[in-house]
């Protein structure tokens, strides 16, 4: 199983609605590590590292997000592998 890291920026109504909390919960459920943090432009940046299939599942989930949010778009890219402990809400 190959290990990858992906960074995604999620746009829409994603701040102030529990998006980071739910993303961290979903990431941990999938066995991933990384972080979710608010950006000044109102979007959320997510780094997810782990099994390639599981990272793909989180990216699919990010396209929907939790029921409290509205996702208008997502841009993601594979980034250099790095070890991250846990899934942090920043």
Automatic annotation (TrEMBL):
Keywords: Hydrolase. One of its GO terms (molecular function) is acylphosphatase activity. Its EC number is 3.6.1.7. Pfam families: Acylphosphatase (PF00708). Gene3D superfamilies: 3.30.70.100. The active site is at 20, 38. The keyword Secreted does not apply. It catalyses: an acyl phosphate + H2O = a carboxylate + phosphate + H(+). It is an enzyme of class 3 (hydrolase). PROSITE patterns: ACYLPHOSPHATASE_1, ACYLPHOSPHATASE_2, ACYLPHOSPHATASE_3. Residues 5-90 form the Acylphosphatase-like domain. NCBIfam families: PRK14426.1. Belongs to the acylphosphatase family. This is Acylphosphatase. It comes from Photobacterium ganghwense.
